[in-house]
Amino acid sequence: MKIAKKSIKFLTIALVALFSATIFASDLDKKQDNHKDGGEVNTQEEVTAYIQHHLKDSHDFTFFSYTSSEGERKHFGFSLPVILWSSEGLVTFMSSEFHHNDDGHVIVEKNGLKFAKIHSKIYELDNGAATVSFDETHHATNAHKTLDFSITKSVVGILFAAFLMLLWFSKLAKQYKTRKVPKGFGRVLEPLVIYVRDEIARPNIGEKKYKKFMGFLLTVFFFIWILNLLGLTPLGFNVTGQIAVTVALAMFTMVIYLFSGSKDFWAHTLWMPGVPVILRPILAIIELAGFILIKPFSLLVRLFANITAGHFVVMSLIALMVTMKEAFGPVASTGMSLALALFIMVIEILVAFLQAFIFTMLSSLFIGMAVEEHEHH
Amino acid sequence: MYNLIGAGLIVIGGGIGLGQIGGKAMEGIARQPEAAGKIQTAMIIIGALLEGLAFGALILGKA
After folding, report:
1. A295: exposed, middle or buried (C-beta count within 10 Å: 0-12, 13-18, 19+)?
2. Which is nearest to A358 in space by CA: B6, B40, B48?
3. Which residues of B fall within a CB distance of 8 Å from A362?
4. ipTM of model
5. Where are the bilayer-spanning segments (chain B) (predicted)?
6. Are A305 and B59 a contacting pair, CB within 8 Å?
7. What's the CA gap between A364 and A202, in Å, rounded?
8. Residue among B41, B44, B55 minimizing CB distance to A302
9. pLDDT digits over A236-248, tens only?
10. Per-domain residue ranges for chain B?
11. Nearest to B45 among A304, A306, A361 (CB)
């Protein structure tokens, strides 16, 4: 009975996954037909543009979009609030006012200021300008960027992950007041928390000091993991693939290990004992560059590049069913892309965990380096 | 064009590195199966460091 239940669950999940893949495929398919009629845009270019657009943050939340038989572009999703700090102060409106336009042709007027969206970035038009004009390299000449505090798609993803974590972990923490072993979903979370504590924090930071950093390490671990997994769902999030997000995460780690550095750490960084005095300033420069630039940079680039590359590969393989259709026929190309995409997707699930693990592991390694106290002989 | 050649070179280098790490870790585990956990953790850390290097080079090549 239990096995039957389990297999039903598995089949449902597989069906949902297949269904969402089909939606995505039909979306791309219709695009191609559209261009065959027009005969202008290369499908390969269209697919690349689609992937590039996905990898960026967007101001509206679109599940899927297609061109109807009348040639009208239809979007399914909802708009998100745009919050700007312009030259005249705070400006807010809904992103639906841009009508999904992304090349600066739709101008939104608010508080006497004009705004245009170009490649997922919002520009404020200069005084007196009515439309955006571009130079040869497609840079806007009479508009400038504003401070953008919008609730974009990635922000929605972050808020969603934060909400999930708050819900799960406050519930888990509350359970320990009345019982020893958690019940429900807490049973899934407890081993993970203990794994982070015993396999990541304890051996790297040390028995005495690991407790202070558990909050940060657990938050970072689950935050990255949930968002990585969210990026694999058909919702189309790409949060940990935004370089701004990974920069912020790496900055947190850097600030934490710099500010919790022990006396020994600073002594060894700035004035290394046991080497000739003439070498000490050179070593200090190298060590400082390592701790302030190279270590955070490698942390942020690893996460960003892994997730971006993963999304790129998955979407390219799904797009195979469009680009290979003429060469192999619809059935063979769809089967091929489905098999390859499934294979990469399984690897991506592993990568989602591995990147969260590596980020936490290296963070705790760096923190461990900083808080370590040496015995003086 | 040139950055594609560069990307290929990076991937060759990263592949050699990862092969070395993975191969030696396998040997280590085969010799001392009881230390498998520790070897795996160390292997993943070194692999991640190498990966960070390779990805850094790829990103710089693209920019």
Report:
1. buried
2. B48
3. 45, 48
4. 0.80
5. 43-61
6. yes
7. 9
8. B55
9. 889 999 999 999 9
10. 1-9+36-63
11. A361
